[in-house]
Amino acid sequence: MMIPRLVVAAYRALPGKESVLLAEVRDHVPLLRSEGLATDRPTVVMRAKDGAIVQVFEWASPAAMEEAKKNPRVRAMWERFNACSEVSPLNTLFESGDLFAEFEPVDLHLAPIVQPDPDHRAE
Q1: What's the rounded mean pLDDT across residues 33-60?
Q2: DSSP letters spanning 46-108
Q3: pTM of the model
Q4: Which end of the chain is more exposed for a tag (fewer CB within 10 A), N or C?
Q5: Is the CB of residue 21 less than 8 Å from the CB of residue 15?
Q6: CB atoms < 10 A from the CB of 11, how many?
Q7: In the prediction, which pLDDT does 46 show?
Q8: What is the helix (H) or strand (E) element at residue 25, kind and residue range?
Q9: What is the mean pLDDT of residues 74-85?
Q10: DSSP assignment, residue 15?
C-alpha cells in the first residue's frame, strides 16, 4: 500500500509576477490530480508576512512524486513556476520561528486568469 505524502511548499514571486504565480498555484494541484499524482485532499494556500505564497497539498505516493519528474505536463508547469517564482525553504519564512505560525489565507478563486505563453504550454 502506497502512503500519500503531505508537502508544504513556499514560493516567492519574482518582481511583477505575483498574479502569474497565484494563477499557477491555483492550477497546480488540479493538474497533478488530472495526472493521477495528487489526492483529493483539500489544498491550503496562504501568504506569509513577506508575501511568500505557501501551499499545502498531498501527493498520491512517493512514487507519484518521482513520476511527476518525467511527466511532460508537470515539467511544463514547473517551468512556468520557475519563470514567475523561486521555491524557498520553509525555514526562510519569518513565521517558521513561531511556535504557532500564522498566515493570511489566500482565496484562489479570486486569482486572475493568466494564460501562459503558447510557446510554453504542455501539449
Answers
A1: 97
A2: EE-TTS-EEEEEEES-HHHHHHHTT-HHHHHHHHHHHHHEEEE-GGGSGGGGSTT---EE--G
A3: 0.86
A4: N
A5: no
A6: 22
A7: 97
A8: helix 18-34
A9: 97
A10: T
Classify residue 40 by its DSSP letter: S
Lookup: cell for 91: 525555514
- What is the phi/psi pair of residue 100, to 5°? -125, 90
User: Which cell goes with 52?
Assistant: 511568500
**Mean pLDDT, range 56-76, rounded to an integer:** 97
Taken in order of first residue, the domains within the chain and their CATH numbers are 16-91 (3.30.70.100)
User: What's the pLDDT at 123?
Assistant: 42
DSSP 35: T
Q: pLDDT averaged over the chain?
A: 91
Type of residue at 95: E
The three cell numbers locating residue 61: 505516493
In angstroms, rounded to a whole number, what is the distance separating the alpha carbons of residues 77 and 50?
A: 24
